[in-house]
Design a protein that fits this description.
heterotrimer; A alpha/beta; B alpha/beta; C alpha+beta; A: alpha/beta; Alpha-Beta Plaits; 3 domains; five-stranded parallel β-sheet; B: alpha/beta; two-stranded antiparallel sheet; about 30% strand
Chain lengths: ~400, ~260, ~375
């Protein structure tokens, strides 16, 4: 039996609370009674909670539960590029540690590559109890086919309970295919992960609708439970030099390593500024700048602080600055020590991408701009006066010492 | 060259607001649009057709209203449109969605290229494109920012990465997900709009695509949404006041340690 | 106001509006400043099929009429009256072929116009033949299966950029206005040259040049209608095209008015938005009413033309006269509402005022329109 949702027409008073509560716009009123449009309904249950008259019933399918007990351990896909483990992997190991401890299972790192034997210690130090490693020239660079095939075989053989993967270009391309092949649930871009200990279920929280609402998603009847997490959302695992891991080396026959696509070249494009996601200080500009030429005042302040330049979606959509500078839900998530937002009103989709910054400074002429709600320090005023004044003052103070 | 474009109709996210009192989405007046990332896929498909001839079929899964998105795609140069719509698809997550779309593509039959936007602006998962290629067991290249070269049975493309781009060669048929750097989508043409108005959109149900009913909709979706809530806002801090010079001084003093 | 447009006309108008807002508005100031011809916009218009709205379907168009042409001209002019002229000037150049061209001529030239592949231009004005179009001096002499054209046309819109020119020239000077004929001349014809680009007060994105004919050989097959029909062709062309100029005027006026309303709402003086002052409110009310009245007259006239009415000279003169006077008044008032800012080139309204002026001058000055209107009124009275 599948899940189902029913409205008891005798109990429905036509109060329309559920219509407003539905995040998917799936409820409308007909003859003063609520009607659910099943094509749009996702059975999320938001309406059930708001109905004061208990007129909505959501029946969850509980029967026919599969035996999921053979699935154990928390896995982290550790991404390497040119033999360098990407920092997202350490962040996932940090988060994976917590989940593994709550479940009382092992934290395992999975790494594919060529000549990566030396990476074992690095992963063990970050808390991996077990390391699955497949070392072969065909796996030197990420390619969809062999990586998917090897990962799928590993999952099928060792049956992990949870898999975490970075929401990077590689991670997103790989893990979506793996999820289909092993028939697993996959939740993208989680900003919060937790465990329901009783059910041994991974609670995956992610923003939806451009970050306007948050949704918690579970995978009740399928294993593994898979989630991707964006860079800089979780804290890196601390280094513990004494931590050791069991190593499982796997090699696979040629047919598993074949790739239909062929990587011809890897081209690096040096950006004018430091990588936004790695920057300790970011100065961002938004719609308030009024035009591309005014990004100069942002660049000057960034230069004074040796900071990276960020931008809001509004500025990027207006083609004032390339997409690579965009901070927010559809851009980059950043977590610098200091984030200075200039002329950015603070749409939720922007806040999602920067609100975990340690210190946030907001400069905006509108005292009611939402950005001030998250700012550590706010200045209400004209960015064209304040930003250059700040640049001058920082230059003075920083050059003196 | 036969090209299939998969699109999604989404709420125009720039319109989506939260009611500050009820903490719920304000949906009134929010128009439905073609997912902005899919516009690049449509444009690339039409350009491929203009270069090599052939046919562009645009495909979507969604409620009956999604027909509007398909008609818009026709006005932009797509030749045929298919709406896969059935109450049985309700509650589909990305697994079931990619299964449904791949079943429809199998029914379409022959194709050389499948194009998808890199992700949808409402869900932002980027999972459906790769999911389709996995279900069809065809090669994929994600985040394509340029199709350098394409022939009857192979293509050379640039895949955007965090550090720059990869140059990748792939046999056809292949699935590409595209990023906005790939092109500038055209505006619709009047003849396209007139054609779209009278164009017949094929409507397929779950039965039509001969899909396994157990893999559709909520039944076929491993994931469940269990809770929806409004994110707790971070607490605001101190507002600095005074004339520009004083405020600048005060702020720099406060941040002195952070910036060294 | 609801003008009960057809579904296709609404589609046409909305698409033109979209292009005006998304593509033309952001570059209008640039082209005004540089006086370059906006080829990238012409390409967008071509791809959108808008060049074909008034051309019959059998010649590759969309089968609409003058009203459709007016809707496009108006919407484009709302963003830039100069760039809009690339479209409207092509219409003026194509109308003689539409009205009097042979089937072969239509088949040869109209599909390219409809696709926006080639722009068109109309050449009648000369240095000594402005309002007095009867005194043109350019000649066309028949020689075998060719005509040899000699003379200089002045202030030709789209000159140099267009590839299809309809030219009025004298085939028989002794017959006066009955000795004029109309020809199609293609760019590149030997003996056809262009003068330097004129520097203008407004519509600066539009190309205006002399077209110079020096023993220019034109195939006899390019004669429109018959010898001696030149002035009839010209007069009927203007009867059909004047609603287009009027539509350009409405677009310019509406563009300025939109800016004025928006500015009045946001500009604060004496502690409140200036839209709170009755002085401003009444100005806005008058501007809005005038624009709407002009639009109603222009659309009604365009519909009359499209219905195949035999004589539309009076009505189309009235439409052009009224709409262009409204455009001048409304754009001047818009600058007034902006005050000092309105006088500055950093703000968009002074351009509308500069652009509006031409609509009172070309395709017959406001004075000539009054002559036409009065002459027709008197003629009608005589018939009663």
């Amino acid at each position: 039996m599948a899940d189902s949702i029913t409205i008891f027409l005798d109990k429905c008073t036509g109060c329309t609370l559920c219509v407003k509560a539905c995040p998917f716009g799936a409820i409308h009123m007909a003859n003063k009674k609520a009607v659910i449009d099943m094509a749009a309904c996702t059975l999320c249950g938001a309406c059930v909670e708001t109905c004061k008259f208990r007129a909505i019933e959501l029946k969850k399918d509980t029967g026919g539960k599969k035996d999921l007990s053979k699935y154990k351990d928390v896995w982290v896909f550790c991404e390497q590029k040119k033999g360098v483990i990407q920092s997202i992997s350490f962040e996932l190991l940090g988060e994976g540690r917590k989940l593994a401890d709550k479940l009382g299972v092992k934290l395992c790192a999975v790494i594919l590559g060529s000549g990566i034997e030396s990476k074992i210690d690095e992963l063990a130090e970050r808390g991996a109890d077990k390391i699955y490693i497949s070392d072969h020239p065909a796996l030197e660079f990420y390619q969809d086919d062999p990586y998917t095939e090897v990962f799928v075989r590993l999952v099928q053989e060792y049956a992990p309970e949870v898999i975490l993967c970075g929401a990077t270009t590689i991670g997103r391309s790989l893990i979506s295919r793996v999820a289909v092949k092993v028939n697993a649930g996959l939740t993208a871009d989680c900003t919060g992960l937790d465990i329901d200990k009783k059910e041994r279920i991974l609670l995956q929280t992610r923003p939806a609708f451009g970050g306007n609402i948050m949704a918690t998603i579970v995978t009740p009847n399928h294993r593994p439970q898979m989630a991707t997490v964006r860079h800089k959302v979780m804290k890196e695992a601390a280094i513990d030099k004494s931590h050791k891991a069991e190593v499982i080396r796997k090699s696979y026959p040629e047919e598993a390593l074949k790739s239909r696509t062929r990587l011809i070249d890897i081209v690096a494009e040096i950006e004018e500024n430091v990588n936004l996601a790695e920057a300790d200080i970011i100065v961002s500009g938004g719609r308030g700048l009024g035009g591309p030429e005014h990004f100069a005042i942002i660049r000057e302040l960034a230069k004074a602080l040796n900071a990276a330049v960020g931008a809001s979606r509004a500025a990027v959509d207006s083609d004032w600055i390339p997409y690579s500078h965009q901070v927010g839900q559809t851009g980059k998530t950043v977590c610098p020590k200091l984030y200075i937002a200039c002329g950015i009103s603070g749409q939720i989709q922007h806040l999602i991408g920067m609100q975990s910054s340690k210190v946030i400074v907001a400069i905006n002429k509108d005292p009611d701009a939402p950005i001030f709600k998250v700012a550590t320090y706010g200045i209400v005023g004209d960015i064209f006066d304040i930003v250059p004044a700040l640049t001058k003052e920082f230059q003075r103070v920083l050059n003196k010492v | 060259m036969n090209i299939i474009v998969c699109i999604k109709q989404v709420p125009n996210t720039t319109d989506v607001r939260i009611d500050p009192v009820t903490n719920t989405l304000v949906r009134e007046g929010v128009e439905s649009v073609i997912n902005p990332f899919d516009a690049y896929a449509i444009e690339e498909a039409v350009r491929l057709k203009e270069r090599f001839g052939g046919k562009v079929t645009v495909l979507t899964m969604g409620p009956p209203q999604a027909e509007n998105a398909l008609k818009e795609a026709i006005s932009l140069g797509c030749d045929e449109a298919i709406l896969v719509s059935d109450r049985k698809f309700a509650g589909s997550d990305t697994w079931a969605t990619s299964y449904t779309l791949s079943s429809a593509i199998k029914k379409i039959g022959t194709f050389d290229v499948i194009l998808c936007g890199k992700q949808a602006s409402d869900g932002d998962t980027a999972q459906v494109g790769p999911g389709i290629s996995a279900h069809l067991d065809i090669p994929q290249v994600t985040y394509v920012k340029k199709i350098e070269d394409i022939s009857a049975n192979a293509a050379k493309v640039e895949r955007m990465t965090e550090e720059g781009y990869d140059i990748v060669e792939t046999p056809l048929p292949c699935l590409f997900t595209v990023v906005k750097e790939i092109n500038t989508p055209r505006l619709p043409s009047l003849k396209g709009m007139i054609r779209a108005k009278s164009a017949k959109v094929l409507k397929w149900t779950a039965d039509d695509i001969e899909a396994n009913p157990e893999l559709l909709g909520l039944d076929g979706s491993p994931t469940r949404v269990v809770k929806i809530f409004t994110p707790a806002p971070r607490k605001g801090g101190e507002i600095l006041k005074g004339d520009t010079a004083d405020v600048a001084k005060e702020l720099v003093e406060l941040l002195k340690d952070a910036v060294r | 106001m609801d003008y009960l447009l057809t579904e296709q006309q609404i589609m046409t108008r909305d698409l033109a509006k979209k292009i005006a807002d998304e593509k033309i508005k952001p570059v209008a100031a640039h082209y005004d400043e540089t006086e370059e011809f906006a080829w990238p916009i012409m390409k967008i218009l071509a791809d959108s099929d808008l060049f074909g709205v008034y051309i019959p379907e059998q010649y590759g168009g969309l089968g609409g009429g003058i009203l459709d042409m007016c809707l496009v001209t108006e919407e484009l002019s709302r963003a830039c009256g100069g760039i809009a002229l690339g479209f409207a000037g092509t219409g003026l150049g194509a109308i003689p072929i539409l009205l009097y061209g042979s089937d072969e001529q239509k088949k040869k030239f109209l599909p390219d116009v409809a696709k926006g592949k080639r722009l068109a231009a109309f050449c009648i004005t000369e240095a000594e033949a402005g309002s007095d179009a009867g005194s043109i001096k350019t000649t066309a002499r028949k020689e075998g299966d060719h005509y040899i054209l000699n003379g200089t046309k002045q202030w030709i819109t789209n000159a140099g950029e267009a590839e299809i020119y309809t030219v009025i020239a004298m085939t028989d000077k002794t017959k006066g206005t009955r000795g004029a004929s109309a020809f199609i001349v293609e760019k590149g014809a030997k003996g056809m040259d262009f003068g330097k680009k004129e520097k203008k007060l407004g519509i600066r994105a539009s190309a205006t040049r002399e077209v110079i004919f020096t023993d220019c050989r034109v195939p006899a097959a390019n004669l429109i209608s018959k010898e001696g029909m030149g002035f009839i062709v010209a007069l009927k062309t203007f009867d059909n095209s004047r609603p287009g100029v009027a539509a350009q005027a409405i677009g310019i006026a509406q563009g300025a008015l939109d800016h004025a309303v928006e500015y009045a709402r946001t500009r604060v003086q004496f502690g409140q938005p200036i839209s709170g002052f009755q002085a401003i409110q009444h100005m806005l009310a008058d501007m809005g009413t005038q624009v709407e009245a002009a639009r109603a007259l222009v659309y009604a006239t365009a519909r009359m033309v499209d219905s195949g009415a035999k004589s539309v000279a009076k009505e189309s003169a009235m439409a052009k006269l009224f709409a262009s006077d409204v455009a001048m008044k409304v754009t001047t008032d818009a600058v007034q509402i902006f005050g000092g800012y309105g006088y500055m080139r950093d703000y968009p309204v002074e351009k509308y005022m500069r652009d509006a002026k031409i609509t009172q001058i070309y395709e017959g000055t406001s004075q000539v329109q009054r002559n036409v209107i009065a002459a027709n009124m008197i003629k009608e009275s005589l018939k009663k």
